[in-house]
Amino acid sequence: MGVETDIASWILTPSDMTAVDRDAATSGLSSFGLMRAAGYAVAASALRHYPAATRFVCLCGVGNNGGDAMIAAEALTGSGADVAVYLMGDRARLAGDAARAFATVPLRSQPLGAYVPAIGDVVIDGLFGAGLSRAVSGALATLMRAVTDLALPVIAIDLPSGVDGRSGQVLGDSFQAAQTVTFMARKPGHLLLPGRTLCGALEVVDIGIPARIIRSHRAPLVENTPALWRDAVKALDPGAHKYRRGHLVVFSGAAASSGAARMSATAGLSAGAGLVTMVAPTEAMPTLAAHLTAVMLKPVDTDAMLSDLIEDTRLNAFVLGPGFGAPERVRRFVAALCDRPLVLDADGITAFREDPQALFDAFRGPVRLVLTPHDGEFSRLFPDLAGDTALSKIDRATMAAARSNAVLILKGPDTVIAEPHGRVAINANAPPWLATAGSGDVLAGIVGAHLAQGMPPFEAAASAVWRHGAAGHEAGEGMTAEDLLRAIRPLPQAS
Asked: Are the C-beta atoms of 20 and 214 separated by less than 8 Å?
């Protein structure tokens, strides 16, 4: 029974979890038994973290989260705690297991509007959970703000009420939880922002649903951890000769704007590419030579010189865009590189804002393009997706990857990595101070290094994003992009 180890990184959407609950019930498991297990897990968390609470206040909605909270109230009362129960809405609206919980637990409930938050309360939030689809407003929003203003600890069941489990967005208002207890698997809202910061410490509790049922409903959506790309890392040999560790090419623009490309090239070398060459106009060569030693330099001024360069099949991957400028030149270079592994970043993305389809059409067939947009750059290639407020960040990245036939790194503090065939990873290891000038240039170079070493595009992108986040932690708060370069560490090797 229970959750297998590999399921720990899985993420289920709220609709997937509803299907899991349904199939668990039809398989013969007692749905009320699962509710009791959930409620007792919440009570155990409450007692473990707040043994000195003056009062536990259980706020119950009319759905299953309300039933979970009522069972938690029963367990807390049985432990000797002082407990108060408040119900949102008419008791006649209770149905199924939630109605059974209220019918069998001998505790009186009061209307939610009667609750006056007080110092010493620990609030157990069983109002909405992950399935909220409408904005929180009015008296409930006022209550949430009162609880927040008093800094009362909140233990959320599944997700803090007000957070959309699908997107992580706040619908109107929400609780700020100190602890969140969810069951069997995390939801996107636990990892996407701002939901991640509103959950507090997250506990994932196994309440006894068989792994086979969870597996039958899981989407190809996971947290980005080393387990996702460990097999690709095994294929890398850090002790190999430099020519066997790949040759990365990074394109630079004019001398005055070459700093971003230098960051990418240096990151590529630090991330394990055996050789890195910077390609730039002849006029930029003196500036580059003054700043770089281990990176090789190659002047390219004309299309013929570019053609001569890329005839060399020993060049394994390319990075184009950081500090490049020259949109028309970008488009010519991309056309020449369309059958090679390419990381397109920054100016490389913006160059196609007038005709994104030209870029997408050039990279049909086997996936070999990695796009690394932040939200603004994303809107230049995918304005319709960026403007659709009904789409989550996962939706936008997934649809964009399919449209472009590229691995898409939609950057941010909750970066999402998606590939055209539906695999998606949410990255959660990046510190907030990683948002600094030059950080994206470093990421592009790491992705390029992984591609040059032979990693498949999705694994190259996901491992680079994780490695970038780990370097941010290593560099520490207040870091610069130069600090980030020095903090790049080897990828973890699977045993």
From this structure: yes
